[in-house]
Write a structure and sequence with these properties.
This protein is mostly helical. It is built from 7 helices and no strands.
Length: 150
């Protein structure tokens, strides 16, 4: 009898499909936030981080590289698009293209770092589980520990 697949073993979608989904989700958040508030703010950051983690969980192992480079390219693409179309949503209207992109990236650098770190962390865990066949915590290691309670 085989054991049930863990969360780390579930992803089996092609990398380009997962990347397209992450782009669509992130751009949808940008459009929604621009319609509601007029600026790109925290909602887009939360959706971006969530999209990065979801992409890392959904992608098949053969396409880990695609998702591994996705977060910075996705954020760069979003801010390049905004710098071209609605510069005032991420920077001063008089800023040039490059300055607007840099301003957008710096203003959302925490989301970029968190999304990238979580995506790489999920990919690393998935790689370990799938290649070594070891769960991160085995049921035996949890139940066989001596209890040090009072």
């Amino acid at each position: 009898m085989s054991r049930p697949r863990t969360l780390w073993e579930q992803g089996n979608d092609p990398g380009l499909q997962v990347a397209a989904l992450a782009v669509a989700i992130t751009l949808s958040a940008v459009v929604l936030e621009l319609r509601i508030g007029g600026d790109v703010a925290w909602f887009t950051d939360v959706v971006f981080v969530s999209a990065c983690v979801a992409a890392a969980l959904l992608v098949r192992m053969a396409d880990f590289f695609t998702v591994g480079v996705l977060p910075p390219l996705l954020m760069l693409g979003v801010f390049a698009m905004l710098a071209t179309t609605t510069r005032e949503t991420i920077a001063h209207p008089e800023d040039g293209f490059v300055q607007a992109v840099v301003t957008g990236l710096s203003g959302h650098s925490l989301a970029l770092v968190v999304g990238y770190a979580l995506a790489l962390g999920v990919l690393a865990i998935r790689h370990r589980v799938q290649v070594q066949g070891k769960p991160l915590i085995s049921p035996r290691s949890v139940t066989d520990r001596p209890h040090h309670g009072g």
